[in-house]
Write the C-alpha cells for this entry.
Amino acid sequence: MTENIRVAILISSDKGAKGEREELSGPAIAAKLQGLAEVAAQEVVPDEKELLTDRLIDYADRLKVDIIFTSGGTGLAPRDITPEATLAVCDRMVPGITDAMRLKSLEVTDRAMLSRAVSGVRGRTLIINLPGSPKAVRECLDVFLPVMDHAVETLRGEAYECAAPTKDH
C-alpha cells in the first residue's frame, strides 16, 4: 500500500451548498477510502465554474493532495459544469479512468452513457469526477480503487512500470 495517500473531496451541488438537501456523496467517498487514504479536505460548493476551479487549484497546489475526488455536476443539466472546471485546471487528461467507470456503470444503468465525467492531472494531483449519487459513487470507486496505489506512486515518481505483474515475472 502506498504511504500516506491524501485526498480532497469536492462536492458540486447548489442544493447541498444551500443546505436544502442532505449531501450524501461526500460521506460515501470518505467511507470507501477508510483505511486507504487520509481525507485532507471535504467541501460542498455550488455549481459555479470559477469557484470549482479555484477549489481544485487550491487543493492541488496549496494542499498538495494526491487525488481530488469531485462528485456531482457531470450530467446534462445546464448548471452541470464540473467537467469544464476540471478541464480548465488539468495539464494532462486520463480518460481511461472515467471510461472504465462508465463502462462498469453501463452494466447497472443505461443512463451512465449520459455522464460527462473526466479525469486528469494537475501537477502531481489526480482529479477524478464521480457521479452525484452515493450508490454510483461507490460503484465507480470500486472500479478505481484497485489501481489507486499505482496511480499515486506513478504521480509521485515512485513507480515507472505500468505493466501488471504476471505469474511468469
User: Anything to note?
Assistant: The helical segments are 14-18, 25-33, 49-62, 82-89, 95-106, 134-155.
